[in-house]
């Protein structure tokens, strides 16, 4: 008689509901029906021209073997320069670590900074992989329920109300799914609170560059101990290249290096070689941001006419997070209905906030202007 081998409980984490919406949308497309994609959190454009040219050159001239675990020196230097040029912050190259997307950065950073049983707080709603990645490594996610009154961001008051100490705090500015941002003062205060309380600040800066008012502030400017995470996926329009980076505080560099050597060996070599050129492509990339800004304007003007009138301030990123409590108590069924009846794919809030997400829907405006304008027209017609 055979014995059933065990299955780890650590893998028993919730699915990513947006992926399920994407599957339903793909089924609709396979049946020959049109879909207006507002569920995906990724640019509809490819990598900028300069990156593609650099990739071709690398393919022709490079063996593309493993690289050092912390990344190729040329890319680490280019990232350090980016901090100097864009934020006027001196970040030494030794603190820059190239990773397999920001997703790879979170795995390395969380493992280096936290032990099983530690508690790490974050706003709710927020990007679901924070919670799920922490859970998979035995760290307890602590949700800070936020609403419009907090601009969906953690506040010192919310942190002070926690009944037990935390060892980490994740912030994202601009945030997914709400697009809201922390001001320089707020981020500085949060960093100081973390330092005073021995809490590791993790700042997810993946949506930097995608802002529609004041520019985002990097935690590298206001904290020496914060773990700063960024990516080539959003502003740089390179999701599938699976490349990101971290600015690592000095006390974590060696752990991150050993973890990276063992878990990943190195980030994709072709992507690293190509990404060195990304920082010279800002004219093309800023063109995408101008399109997002137009799309954002269309949605902020048109969605209220379709009954979506409680919207989080979309300061940055490419999302509008809508409170749909007046229309449904079940955002998942609601999104399925919208897809079936209008052909628009959007994401139920339960991905981002299991407790209150039944009342929220996220619309991504990363697509073309024509897609967004047509989606707005259809939603208005649908509500009539
Ligand atoms: C807030 C946030 N952080 C991190 C990621 C992960 O991105 P990547 O691994 O492509 O860098 C995403 C992806 O949508 C995100 O929205």
From TrEMBL:
Which first-to-last residue range defines the signal peptide?
none
Q: Which Gene3D superfamilies match?
A: Type I PLP-dependent aspartate aminotransferase-like (Major domain)
Its cofactor is: pyridoxal 5'-phosphate
| Membrane-spanning ranges | none
Which CDD domains does this entry report, sorted A to Z? AAT_like
Q: Where is the Aminotransferase class I/classII large domain?
A: 35-379
User: Could you tell me one molecular function GO term of this UniProt entry?
Assistant: transaminase activity
* Enzymatic reactions: L-aspartate + 2-oxoglutarate = oxaloacetate + L-glutamate
Q: What is its EC number?
A: 2.6.1.-
Q: Keyword annotations for this protein?
A: Aminotransferase, Pyridoxal phosphate, Transferase
Entries under Pfam families matching the protein: Aminotran_1_2
Q: Which family does it belong to?
A: Belongs to the class-I pyridoxal-phosphate-dependent aminotransferase family.
Q: What is this protein called?
A: Aminotransferase
């Amino acid at each position: 008689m055979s014995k059933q081998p065990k299955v780890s409980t650590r893998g028993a984490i919730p699915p990513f509901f947006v992926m399920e919406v994407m599957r339903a949308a793909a089924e609709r497309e396979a049946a020959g029906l049109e879909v207006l994609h507002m569920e995906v959190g990724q640019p509809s454009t490819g990598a900028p021209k300069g990156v593609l040219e650099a990739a071709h050159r690398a393919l022709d001239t490079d063996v593309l073997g493993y690289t050092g675990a912390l990344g190729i020196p040329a890319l680490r230097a280019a990232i350090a320069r980016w901090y100097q040029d864009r934020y006027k912050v001196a970040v030494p190259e030794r603190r820059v670590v190239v990773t397999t997307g920001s997703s790879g950065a979170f795995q390395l950073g969380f493992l280096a900074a936290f032990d099983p049983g530690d508690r790490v707080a974050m706003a709710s709603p927020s990007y679901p992989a924070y919670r799920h990645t922490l859970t998979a490594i035995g760290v307890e996610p602590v949700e800070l329920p936020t609403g419009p009154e907090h601009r969906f961001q953690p506040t010192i008051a919310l942190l002070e109300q926690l009944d037990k100490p935390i060892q980490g705090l994740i912030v994202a500015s601009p945030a997914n799914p709400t697009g809201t941002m922390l001001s320089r003062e707020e981020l500085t205060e949060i960093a100081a609170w973390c330092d005073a309380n021995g809490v590791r600040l993790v700042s997810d800066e993946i949506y930097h560059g995608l802002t529609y008012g004041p520019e985002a502030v990097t935690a590298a400017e206001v904290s020496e101990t914060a773990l700063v995470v960024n990516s080539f996926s959003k502003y740089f329009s390179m999701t599938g290249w699976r490349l990101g980076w971290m600015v690592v505080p000095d006390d974590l560099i060696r752990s991150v290096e050993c973890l990276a050597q063992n878990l990943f060996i190195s980030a994709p070599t072709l992507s690293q070689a190509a990404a060195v050129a990304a920082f010279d492509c800002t004219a093309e990339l800023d063109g995408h941001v101008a399109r997002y800004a137009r799309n954002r304007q269309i949605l902020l003007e048109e969605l209220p006419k379709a009954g979506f009138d409680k919207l989080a301030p979309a300061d940055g990123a490419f999302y509008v997070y809508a409170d749909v409590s007046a229309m449904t108590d079940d955002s998942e069924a609601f999104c399925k209905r919208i897809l079936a009846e209008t052909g628009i794919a959007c994401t139920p809030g339960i991905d981002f906030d299991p407790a209150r997400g039944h009342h929220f829907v996220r619309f991504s405006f990363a697509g073309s202007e024509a897609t967004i304008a047509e989606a707005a027209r259809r939603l208005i017609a649908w509500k009539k």
